[in-house]
Amino acid sequence: MRSQCTGESNVANPLTIEEFYRPVSDELLEVVLTYSCSKWNVSIPNVVKLPDRPRKFAGKYKQSTNTIQYNRDILGLILHELAHHINKCTNGTHPLPSHGTRYGEILQELLDLWR
């Protein structure tokens, strides 16, 4: 079964549910951010872990501060927000719609890289 988080409608091969919910340790998070950002030649975003909320997971990319905020250590959530950061940094601004074609291309590359 495939996950269908917001934005994955623009990717050809989304993560499975199991892949989406893959736990991300602090060490893996650092590797994902460092390698992915160097691949696209963009800065590493600030990352802020928010308090967990039962039965809810959420992430947000704040382009004004280049900050990824998230409340669950899961791969799909991190890659989703990282795609927003890379999209903004490679375009100079975050284009609208925020889950458009270019965002989908970046997200698909990230999914293929880290699945």
Mean pLDDT across the residues is: 88
Order of strands across the widest beta sheet?
A: 1-3-2
Name of the top-level CATH class:
Alpha Beta
**Number of domain modules:** 1
Helix fraction bin: 40-55%
Based on Cα principal axes, name the global outline: globular
The major pleated sheet works out as: 3 strands, mixed
CATH topology: Zincin-like
* Helical segment count: 4
N-to-C SSE series?
A: HHEEEHH
The whole-angstrom Rg is 13 Å
Distance between the termini: 15 Å
Low-pLDDT runs of 5+ residues are none
Judged by helices, strands and strand pairing, the structural class is: mainly alpha
The total of beta strands comes to 3
CATH architecture: 2-Layer Sandwich
What does this structure look like?
This protein has 115 residues and is mainly α. The protein has a single domain (8-114), classed as Zincin-like. It has helices at residues 17-20, 26-40, 75-91, 101-114, and strands at residues 46-49, 59-62, 67-70. Strands 1-3-2 form a 3-stranded mixed beta sheet, with helices on one face. It is globular and about 35 Å long.
Write the layout of secondary structure elements.
Elements: H1 17-20, H2 26-40, E1 46-49, E2 59-62, E3 67-70, H3 75-91, H4 101-114
Parallel strand pairs: 1-3
Antiparallel strand pairs: 2-3
Based on the model shown, name its key terms:
Zincin-like, 3-stranded mixed beta sheet, mainly alpha, 3 strands
Write a brief caption for the model.
This protein has 115 residues and is mainly α.
